[in-house]
Amino acid sequence: MGKLAKRVTSQDVADLAGVSRTTVSFVLNNVTRFNITPQTRQKVLDAAESLGYVPNASAQALASRRAKAIGLVMTRSPRYIASDTFLPQIIGGLLDVVKSKKLGLLIEWVEPGRQLATYRGLVNAKHIDGMILLTPRLDDDGLKELEDFDVPTILMGELPGSNLYSVDVDNRLAAQKVVGHLVDLGHRDIACILNAPPPYSSATERLLGYQDALEAANIPFNNQLVRHADFDPASGYKQMQALLTSAEPFSAVFTASDNVTIGVLSAIRDAGKLVPDDLSVAGFDDIPWAAFSDPPLTTIRMPAQELAHHACYLLLDLMQGQTPENKHMRLETELVIRKSTQAFTKLPV
Question: Looking at the predicted structure, is the pLDDT value of residue 172 above 90?
Fold first, then answer.
């Protein structure tokens, strides 16, 4: 009796077509949000046909799992989650994928200091076959143990030293890019309101990017111009008020979250100042309202839905026992220049 033929995988299709496995998944699952050319799409279809690859094989493999669901685990309380205008894009991107695979999406949140117990509870209860952890914290005592759990886990965000797979953007480079734009406009006294408290890795990386841009321009770092918000507009309002009533002069502010920027702009208006005439404001995320704010917001465009898609497909690979080579995937960001920033023409406030 002859040997059984080796099962054709999506990686085989990717290799033959000369594309990534993510592109293969997008084409074969009819994900149309990305600019995949008709030529590339046809190459993938031709490769799959010539190899006899059957996309349903992955669904059959997933169907053998007990829970038939993945978990989105968030490290913020429901109060912050309810006001987060970036989060719906993430959830929408995940639903694009899980619905195409006939899976469920369980959404959970963890309290600081309760992470390990929450992770163990999810795993032991077998509610999920894999989890995506959104906005990981540097002080999360459960992350190390997650590496040993028998449930595949993806970080949406990066943590130094973690062996877990991750999908993110280069937060440090993106922050340097947008603060560099303010420097190029002639601003030297630039305030910084971060998106989150220090334990969140994204806040740490965006602060480093802010410092990089100042250092590249030989601008001394002034810690008195740095504030930490807490994800929501109210915290942005509070921190902007604190800056405006301080003795520190500044002509521009980098806000490391568009959601926080909502409160920042309100505080500036309430102080009787104008954007960008009195203060230039630049954000981070390019959430849907940013293009329609008054004035339209200069910001960093985060590929939110693409991050969710890639994280979900990577998780599905791990759930099928595959070991993707790229352990830490980073997607590109884009600086979007609008009318909330202008050239420095007067003394700072």
Answer: yes
> In angstroms, rounded to a whole number, what is the distance separating the alpha carbons of residues 317 and 173?
28
Give the dihedral sign, CA 56/124/200/258: positive
Comparing CA positions, the residue from 18, 24, 97 lying closest to residue 306 is 97
The pLDDT of residue 346: 65
List the structure tokens of 203. Answer: 């806040």
Residue 152: asked if its preceding bond is cis (omega within 30°), the reply is no
Task: Judge residue 274's burial from the number of C-beta atoms within 10 Å of its C-beta, 0-12 exposed, 13-18 middle, 19 or more buried.
Answer: exposed
One DSSP character per residue, 174-228 reads: HHHHHHHHHHHTT--SEEEEESS-TTBHHHHHHHHHHHHHHHHTTPPP-GGGEEE
Residue among 234, 225, 181 at smallest CA distance from 207: 225
Percent helix, strand and coil across the chain, each to the nearest 5: 45, 15, 40
What letter would DSSP give residue 298?
B
β-pairing verdict for 252-255 and 280-282: parallel
pTM of the model: 0.79
The per-residue pLDDT for range 205-240, each reduced to its tens digit, is: 999 999 999 999 999 999 999 999 999 999 999 999
